Sequence to fold (602 residues):
Amino acid sequence: MNTVIEQVTAKLRERSKATRQDYLDRMKRTQDQDPPKRRLSCGNLAHAYAACGEEEKQTIRLMQSANLGIVTSYNDMLSAHQPMVSYPDLIKQVARQHGSTAQVAGGVPAMCDGVTQGQAGMELSLFSRDVIALATAVSLSHNLFDGVLCLGVCDKIVPGMVIGSLQFGHLPVGFIPAGPMPTGIPNKEKASVRQRYAEGKANRDELLAAESASYHSPGTCTFYGTANSNQVLVEMMGIQLPGSSFINPEDPLRDALTRETVLRVISQSHGGSSYTPMYEVVNEASIINAVVALLATGGSTNHTMHMVAMAKSAGIDLTWKDMDDLSRVVPLLARVYPNGEADINAFQQAGGMAYLVRELRGAGLLNEQVVNLMGEGLDSYELAPELDEQGGAVWRNNVMTSSLPDVLAPASMPFDKEGGLRRLAGNLGEGVIKVSAVKAPHREVKAPCKIFHSQDQLQKAFEAGEMNRDIVAVVLFQGPMANGMPELHKMTPYLGVLQDKGYKVALVTDGRMSGASGKVPAAIHMSPEAMDGGPLGKLRDGDIVHLDANNGSLQALVDEQEWQAREQTPAYIEDNTLGRNLFASLRASVNGARSGATIFHD
Fold:
């Protein structure tokens, strides 16, 4: 095993020893003191199954088999969630066939960053993760369930469901995705139209046609953003079946994997053949495995927050330093947009998760002592699922080579010897940068900065020709305390145009860019944020800022005495509508990005 993987895992265990033990004690105490169903009174039970058929009532009443709680993110507006409309009926059917039952325990909200991008609604996006965690807990609060099935895919939904489910970690949990939509127009073509639109060289009809040809059918978006990064993470944590992440919604294998997940959770429920609660599955070793896979694939920077928050819910103190240490030894094995031109369907065609796990294991980069939905160890996770003669899912396809070596590479010949993530530190605070999509000549920028308080301000400056030079664009008051930390992709085409003109360009912000972070170097999630007195608020127009992603440093090159004497820039907060006021208490209580940007504190 790679010594760095071993050391980071050991340090994580030691650092988390007290909080992890507290969590485990709480989960075991819950199972002992409040076992599912058995503490319910006759009145409680009657309410809980009043709407069930007589057969289901009798099965639940006997308490001799599993009753599964379904937590769903289904809605029919968003493409990633629309296929889930039929999942509950299928799950119930499979449970009945095996002497068990299933009920829809509750629903969670599922908003789409693609729809709210650049809009006021985006200020609710990050907080929706913690709302989803709360909704998951409310759904499971009836204590009627022996196991949990989470139907979720996209950006905040999966992390929120993980956080919520971990509070019921005495139960087995299985995640069931919907899979990506088929491939639309090439991502490079879509990005080109976006950039030409930013330059005024394409009209709105042309832009909408390109977007519609890219996002065109049921299923998850096909670029490698947060949604598809989620799938990699939950597979590697062991709470999703191997190879189930990137099967298209209409593929017959999709339903077969859903059926198999139901059977696995039933068998792992208390009293089943192999009791495996979630608290045994999600531990320090599986968390590290998930981070390794994220790095090896150049996954979403949103997970520098989500992974910290998810780990914390299991009593595990994961840090950005851990991620940076791992990134130094984990090779980049995938080139999927925005880290390449291919989409997630090409990744699947090349060998997908089975090949990725095989290569990471072969290089000694994964912890082997783990348990998951398939049992112990990772052997099943380097096999790809397929249909057997009866239409069931079996794992027997040993993927030995990548069929698309320009998309998925072996560990012996990686695209980069290191992962795509860096921790940044200096007199501007602590942040992260995703470099897997940034070409080497652009990873270091030293230039005068220009301060903005919103994406719209930057857009206006660009259109007025005020940014045609070497520039570090600093966008303040975009953190979770200030405005909920919306994604800032609206600026990407403008900065890309400047970089293409030959200027040295970088972005520095306490906001986020997420999994679609692209070719422009972006120091994001800067902590403490400006709203919390962070040093970004001391910058002034014209200050020289030095971003060095190679060495992990971010500095304002200002005389130290002057720097210490400067006051903070007064807060600039837009009073947006669309429900923003309801989230005031969350903004007031949220912690910083490096602590997970969560309202759930220690």
The mean pLDDT is 94. The radius of gyration is 24 Å. Residues 78 and 112 are 7 Å apart (CA to CA).
